[in-house]
């Protein structure tokens, strides 16, 4: 489906997207936006093996309503695991705060 067609469906499904967003906010995910719900929905549809030949609004609503907060959490977890490799350069991680780091540098300079 083209972006223009998905744009049409997004407008049609806006009340359902808003409802799903409010549901997830109710479960404590205040950062969720309609766009986040939409992006997850599109990602799930792209992976879906069985789709009807002709897309109808009732099928899209059903698929959207099947998205759960667990789907959202799984996506966040997978995205976090795909994040940057903090150990790629082989150096130790410096987990000190900027203040602690500055104090250590001052002590190093005063001692030399």
The sequence of SSEs as H and E is HHHHHH
The low-confidence runs, each spanning 5 or more residues with pLDDT under 50, are none
Mean pLDDT across residues: 88
Number of helical regions: 6
Task: Specify the structural class.
Answer: mainly alpha
Bulk shape: elongated
Q: Helical percent range?
A: 55-70%
Terminal-residue CA separation = 67 Å
In percent terms, what proportion of residues is strand?
Answer: under 5%
Number of DSSP E strands: 0
Rounded Rg: 22 Å
Largest sheet: none
User: What is the total number of structural domains?
Assistant: 1
Pfam families: Post_transc_reg (PF13797)
Protein name: Post-transcriptional regulator
Organism: Salisediminibacterium beveridgei
InterPro entries: Post-transcriptional_regulator
Core attributes:
Post-transcriptional regulator; single chain; mainly alpha; elongated
Overall description:
The protein is an all-alpha fold and 112 residues long. The protein has one domain. The chain is 66% helix and 0% strand. The chain has six helices and no strands. α2 crosses α3. It is elongated, with a radius of gyration of 22 Å. The chain starts with a helix and ends with a helix. The mean pLDDT is 88. It comes from Salisediminibacterium beveridgei. InterPro entries: Post-transcriptional_regulator. Pfam families: Post_transc_reg (PF13797). This is Post-transcriptional regulator.
């Amino acid at each position: 489906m083209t972006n223009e067609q998905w744009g049409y469906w997004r407008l049609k499904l806006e009340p359902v997207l808003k409802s799903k967003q409010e549901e997830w906010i109710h479960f404590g995910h205040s950062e969720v936006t309609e766009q986040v719900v939409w992006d997850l929905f599109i990602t799930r549809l792209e992976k879906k093996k069985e789709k009807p030949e002709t897309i109808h609004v009732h099928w899209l609503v059903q698929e959207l309503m099947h998205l759960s907060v667990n789907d959202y959490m799984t996506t966040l977890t997978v995205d976090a695991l795909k994040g940057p490799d903090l150990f790629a350069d082989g150096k130790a991680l410096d987990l000190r705060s900027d203040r602690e780091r500055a104090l250590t540098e001052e002590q190093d300079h005063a001692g030399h």
